[in-house]
Amino acid sequence: MLCELSTANRALLVSVPALGAHRLLAQTRNLVVALIFSTQEKTRQSSLEDSVRSIAKLRSARGDRGDPGLGRDDTAYIVMPGWLNRLRLLTGMVRSNRPGRTLPALSTSIAAAAAVGTFGVFYSSMWTLADSLHPARLLLIGLLVIAALTFWLIFRNRLWTKRRDAVYAWQGGLNNTTTVIMVGTSVALMFLVLFAFLFALGLVVVDDGQLGSELMHSVSFFNYPRLAWLAACLGTLAGALGSNFDSDDEIRRATYSKRESERRDTDDEAEA
Q1: How large is the greatest C-alpha to C-alpha distance in the chain, in angstroms?
Q2: Of 49, 111, 174, 233, which residue has the fewest beta carbons closer than 10 angstroms?
Q3: What is the pTM of this model?
């Protein structure tokens, strides 16, 4: 649903995520102005239909497809169907969640991962292993570690929307996709912060002569990022997999599935 308005109550509601992530301020302003003008009409039902259809036509001029409709008690609404508009809604949901905002809530995980990763920098067997692995395999290991921690945090904090909990058939998939992107971005940023720390630590602590004697060949600058990358993978997997978000409030503010679950619990308590 893009928007909903009632001339009787002189109230309007706009779903900001449904507008997407591009030119959000301008789109919101134009839509709200059009809706406000529609509530100023003197003739309710006929003018309401005309105003809603005009707004839908305005959206279709941009290549969107809007279905106007009338609900109960002269409440009008515009629904934007189709996979393209659902993709726009997904980008809007991700933007409103502000990916990376939960990174401070992973401070305990970062500390645990840094402790284990530091051990990997000092461990000579890690030097040999990092040197022997192909860069493509190192990249694959990093992606698998990020994916493992992402899904661990999602399922441990019950952020996954089950099919029976979704109001619409497509809602669960949309919420889950947004959650995976949001948590995955936070974990990826955590991994990069850890990699930068271990890379700087390796440059300071590990002497290139000692590293060369252990590897039994001449070393270059690129040996250090490979070592830091593998140590970051070890630290993320072994040090952070058993940890969790520091604050449940951050999760509540940043994920739709958590907020939706709490809204349902509140409604159940109110009905009881």
Answers
A1: 87
A2: 111
A3: 0.71
- Enter the tokens of residue 88: 């726009």
Identify the DSSP state of 236: I
Answer whether 29's CB lies under 8 Å from 37's CB. Answer: no
**Residue 105, phi then psi, degrees to nearest 5:** -75, -5
- Tell me the residue type at 180: V
**Whole-angstrom Cα distance, residue 16 to residue 21?**
9
Residue 81 in tokens:
């169907």
Token pair for residue 51? 């105003």
The candidate with the shortest Cα–Cα distance to 49, out of 33, 61, 38, 60, is: 38
Q: Model confidence over 210-260: pLDDT tens digits?
A: 888 888 888 888 888 999 999 999 988 876 766 767 666 666 665 655 555
Dist. CA 181–CA 250, nearest whole Å: 16
User: Can you read off the two tokens belonging to residue 89?
Assistant: 């809604």
3-state secondary structure of 96: helix
The Cα–Cα gap between 120 and 135 comes to: 18
Query: Residue 111: which residues within 8 A CB-CB, separation 6 or more?
Result: none
CA distance 262 to 243: 23
DSSP state of 84: H
Q: What are phi and psi of 107, to 5 degrees?
A: -60, -40
Cα separations in angstroms, 241 against 74, 146, 206: 53, 10, 27
Residues 6 or more apart from 53 whose CB is under 8 A from it? 68
